[in-house]
Design goal:
By secondary structure, this protein is α+β, with helices and mostly antiparallel strands. The chain has one domain. 19% of the residues lie in helices and 23% in strands. It contains two helices and seven strands; from the N terminus they run ββαβββαββ. The strands form two sheets. It has a four-stranded mixed beta sheet.
Length: 105
């Protein structure tokens, strides 16, 4: 189930494993920071000096091949592409989830 309303920072879905959607920078940044994730891009996917595929580098998850970028640059690219952040707060077992994807509406 995907909820498409904007979520306040720290607000959890109705059930563990539920999916939320937002374009709010504060929600996205706080979600990533709680997981100690850094804004990043995939090298070789950019063009004309612009970041390519946007990602987060989660500690301990093999992000050595990613290039870290600033939050400002990450959000500038996110907004230019009119993306939505689809994510989970918690897995079905109740643990923190690192699941996210970036979609176009």
């Amino acid at each position: 189930m995907v909820r498409s309303r904007r979520q306040a920072p720290g607000k959890h879905e109705g059930r563990p494993g539920g999916t939320l959607v937002t374009s709010e920078h504060d929600v996205i940044r706080k979600w990533a920071q709680r997981r100690r994730a850094e804004p990043a891009t995939v090298p070789g996917t950019g063009h004309d000096g612009r970041p390519g595929l946007l990602r987060f580098d989660f500690p301990g998850y093999g992000g050595a091949g990613l290039t870290h970028i600033s939050w400002d640059r990450w959000f500038e690219t996110f907004d230019e592409r009119e993306l939505r952040f689809v994510y989970q707060e918690r897995r079905e077992d109740g643990g923190d989830s690192n699941f996210f994807r970036l979609d176009r509406p």
